[in-house]
């Protein structure tokens, strides 16, 4: 099994995906253990002093003015976890929780949090045992980090609350830890706070959305090319020199992908045959411009994610050297900051939802053209076998339209909202967790929208008798039919066909089939 080693300098997106989705094992690098030990010595030195230090010997949030004596500090750290584990609603997905835990471990190992090495080791042990804390949908405002979700994870480390075992059953966390020989941790100064105060949930969901959308944008280029072919459109608009004079890199990549899929097609270039038209409709002709803008949005979001992956998000943080109100051994200090605010991540999560909604919208418009006999250039109404007796794909497009409409609602930015909390101490929040949750829904919906376009386009191409599709198109058709995405014929129960098309898009077989001819798509 693949192993991810966590050091002091952060992790990669592929590391997060390997742990969250692939179940990779986690180990701590020696440099991480050394950094943890050094930072903990600073916290211990500060804890021994009479001066109050936020997170070490004070309350939290609006209660930070109270100095907490040594005899109450273990209880203080335990209580912040218990009280903040206040989530409600459905459980979030296992992969989200694993990403959440792993990214928190990444920050802990940076050496800026003051957590003891044994706590970090326990975090790794829980991940490696396949124990997944029960985390609920609601509880994060995306500021002071994803507090409630992270608190539910910390609760499991303490042997409290509920978690899901490797077999998928939900049981008391204490039982699961005992079965795997993991001792519950007793949190000391600052540790409870350090386990809660990060953007890890929203970042984890951003990284998974980026991976999914990268595949879906390639998928959209393929389905758009198939639709252009089915509508007897022209591929001249995809010429590289046309896109070079508007030098958006995503647009050029999308056009190149479509051109590669269409190479050798016997269907393109027939737009002047029976029903002359000067140009193809925008939904076909402008496909690279719309998909390309989304690709460039992905590139910006990826840059933000990479910066956040390199960050150590906590409040307060442990810093070596310098001047402060409170000093530890070797001149180290603990400083409050605002790095936990989720705005940078929240903005791009919302931006991606907007781009995904627009990509779905243009795909739905292309699908509708395939089904409308007045605009499909010779195809039967709704691609039906015997129109009137058969309804064809009429209601498949209804389903697609419903998904697109939902995506437009999901494109309303969560990050434009803010709601005060903690007695107005936390008076502006990012709502980044909410942005991430709705983006996950949007990504699922986009997958289904593209599946419907694929289903319609492959059927339409097969109805173009006497014309030969491109080699890449033929490869897609053969793979789709082998995957249970059935072709033309009398009306039948459509839901299984659409589910097969969705699976074909979601797991990458659509792109893989095209790439057997085109080579790697951009």
TrEMBL record:
InterPro entries per UniProt: Aromatic_Lyase, Fumarase/histidase_N, HutH, L-Aspartase-like, Phe/His_NH3-lyase_AS
Catalyzed reaction equations: L-histidine = trans-urocanate + NH4(+)
Record carries keyword Magnesium: no
Modified residues (2,3-didehydroalanine (Ser)): 144
PROSITE patterns on file: PAL_HISTIDASE (PS00488)
Subcellular location: Cytoplasm
Keyword Acyltransferase: no
Cleaved signal peptide residues: none
Modification after translation, per record: Contains an active site 4-methylidene-imidazol-5-one (MIO), which is formed autocatalytically by cyclization and dehydration of residues Cys-Ser-Gly.
GO cellular component, one term: cytoplasm
Pathway terms, separated by semicolons: Amino-acid degradation; L-histidine degradation into L-glutamate; N-formimidoyl-L-glutamate from L-histidine: step 1/3
GO biological process: cinnamic acid biosynthetic process; L-histidine catabolic process; protein homotetramerization
Keywords recorded for this protein, A-Z: Cytoplasm, Histidine metabolism, Lyase
Covalent cross-link 5-imidazolinone (Ala-Gly) as placed by the record, residue numbers: 143-145
One Pfam family from the record: Lyase_aromatic
GO molecular function: histidine ammonia-lyase activity; phenylalanine ammonia-lyase activity
Catalytic activity, EC: 4.3.1.3
CDD domains attached to this UniProt entry: PAL-HAL
HAMAP family cross-referenced by the UniProt entry: His_ammonia_lyase (MF_00229)
Family under the similarity heading: Belongs to the PAL/histidase family.
UniProt name for this protein: Histidine ammonia-lyase
């Amino acid at each position: 099994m693949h192993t991810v080693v966590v050091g002091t300098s952060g992790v990669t997106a592929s590391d997060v995906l390997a742990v969250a989705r692939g179940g990779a094992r986690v180990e701590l690098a020696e440099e991480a253990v050394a950094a943890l030990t050094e930072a903990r010595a600073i916290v211990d030195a500060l804890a021994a002093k009479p001066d109050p230090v936020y997170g070490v010997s004070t309350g939290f949030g609006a209660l930070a003015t109270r100095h907490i004596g040594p005899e109450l500090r273990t209880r203080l750290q335990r209580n912040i976890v218990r009280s903040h584990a206040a989530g409600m609603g459905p459980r979030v997905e296992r992969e989200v929780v694993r990403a959440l835990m792993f990214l928190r471990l990444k920050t802990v190992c940076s050496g800026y949090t003051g957590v003891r090495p044994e706590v970090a080791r326990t975090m790794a042990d829980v991940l490696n045992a396949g124990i997944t804390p029960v985390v609920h949908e609601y509880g994060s405002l995306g500021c002071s980090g994803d507090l409630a979700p992270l608190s539910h994870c910390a609760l499991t480390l303490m042997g409290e609350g509920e978690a899901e075992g490797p077999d998928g059953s939900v049981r008391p966390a204490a039982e699961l830890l005992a079965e795997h020989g993991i001792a519950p941790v007793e949190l000391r100064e600052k540790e409870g706070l350090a386990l809660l105060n990060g953007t890890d949930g929203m970042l984890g969901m951003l990284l998974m959305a980026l991976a999914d959308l990268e595949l879906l944008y390639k998928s959209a280029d393929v389905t758009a090319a198939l639709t252009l072919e089915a509508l007897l459109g022209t591929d001249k608009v995809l010429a590289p020199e046309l896109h070079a004079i508007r030098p958006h890199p995503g647009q050029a990549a999308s056009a190149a992908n479509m051109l590669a899929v269409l190479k050798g097609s016997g269907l393109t270039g027939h737009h002047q045959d029976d029903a002359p038209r000067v140009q193809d409709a925008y939904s076909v002709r402008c496909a690279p411009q719309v998909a390309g803008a989304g690709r460039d949005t992905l590139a910006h979001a990826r840059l933000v994610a990479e910066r956040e992956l390199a960050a150590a998000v906590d409040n307060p943080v442990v810093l070596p050297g310098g001047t402060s109100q409170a000093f530890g051994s070797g001149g180290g200090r603990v400083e409050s900051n605002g790095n936990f605010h989720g705005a940078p991540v929240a903005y791009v999560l919302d931006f991606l939802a907007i781009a995904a909604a627009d990509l779905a919208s243009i795909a739905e418009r292309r699908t509708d053209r395939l089904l409308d006999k007045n605009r499909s250039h010779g195809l039967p109404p709704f691609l039906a076998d015997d129109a009137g007796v058969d309804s064809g794909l009429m209601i498949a497009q209804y389903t697609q339209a419903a998904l697109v409409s939902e995506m437009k609602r999901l494109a309303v930015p969560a990050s434009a909202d803010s709601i005060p909390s903690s007695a107005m101490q936390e008076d502006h929040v990012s709502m980044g967790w909410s942005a991430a949750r709705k983006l996950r829904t949007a990504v699922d919906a986009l997958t289904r929208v593209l599946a419907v376009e694929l289903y319609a386009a492959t059927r339409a191409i097969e109805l173009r008798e006497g014309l030969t599709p491109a080699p890449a198109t033929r490869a897609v058709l053969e793979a789709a039919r082998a995957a249970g995405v059935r072709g033309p014929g009398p009306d039948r129960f459509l839901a299984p066909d659409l589910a097969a098309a969705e699976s074909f898009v979601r797991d990458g077989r659509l792109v893989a089939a095209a790439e057997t001819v085109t080579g790697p798509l951009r």
